[in-house]
Write a sequence for this structure.
């Protein structure tokens, strides 16, 4: 059974940093690219970032480019999102999502909430 | 990276059919057969309902179907049931290894 468990969310002041983690199980993690997607309170879904299976290719939404970094540890079946220079508009539930081979997300974790507020 | 356009809300009575549209551009929906649809109940994670425009994952009811014409994709739910009441989001590959989502549609079963 595929499982994705996010952690690391919380309350942080504007300009602060936070590192999110996603623990994966139930599939061959090292063979899949992975995504982070966020959802602001009462709003829609927004793709944030993706990383290829071997970390060779990394992509970001314009809204987070230069502030967020994505990484993974295939030995630990884990995905990470380092968020720096956080802004109020980064407040959201952050989901990690496993994609199909076509790249479209198919399985999602339960999400971890991030609140950026003074 | 502009969001795909979905109606804010749709509604239908039990047993009826409804269709939710998802309008993009020639750079995303119109260029790729890589459109997916997700169902999200309050406080829950999104669940994949349709992928690659028309394909249905194992375990998803055949009451859910997808289609695409030009820059607009559509999700049709037939034989509406109370448990279908949820938010629905479309997603499209947008080139350069990016994804774009729709703003979401709230489905109310009357």
């Amino acid at each position: 059974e595929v499982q994705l468990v996010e952690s690391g969310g919380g309350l942080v002041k504007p300009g602060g940093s936070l590192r999110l983690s996603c623990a994966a199980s139930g599939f061959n993690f090292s063979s899949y690219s992975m995504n982070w997607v966020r959802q602001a309170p009462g709003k829609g879904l927004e793709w944030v970032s993706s990383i290829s299976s071997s970390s060779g290719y990394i992509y970001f939404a314009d809204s987070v480019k230069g502030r967020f970094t994505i990484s993974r540890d295939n030995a630990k079946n884990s995905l990470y999102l380092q968020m720096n220079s956080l802004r109020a508009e980064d407040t959201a539930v952050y989901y990690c999502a496993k994609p199909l081979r076509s790249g479209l997300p198919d399985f999602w974790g339960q999400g971890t909430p991030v609140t950026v507020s003074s | 990276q502009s969001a795909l356009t979905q109606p804010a809300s749709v509604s239908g009575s039990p047993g009826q059919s409804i269709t939710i549209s998802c309008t993009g551009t020639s750079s995303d929906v119109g260029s790729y057969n890589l459109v997916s649809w997700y169902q999200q109940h309050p406080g829950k994670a999104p669940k994949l309902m349709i992928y690659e425009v028309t394909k249905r994952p194992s375990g998803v009811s055949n009451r859910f179907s997808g289609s695409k014409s030009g820059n607009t994709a559509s999700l049709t739910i037939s034989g509406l049931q109370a448990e279908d009441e949820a938010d629905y989001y479309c997603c499209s590959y947008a080139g350069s290894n990016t994804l774009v989502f729709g703003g979401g549609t709230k489905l109310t079963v009357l």
The beta strands of chain B are 9-12, 18-23, 35-40, 47-50, 64-69, 72-77, 86-93, 99-101, 105-109. The CA atoms of residues 58 and 73 of chain B lie 21 Å apart.
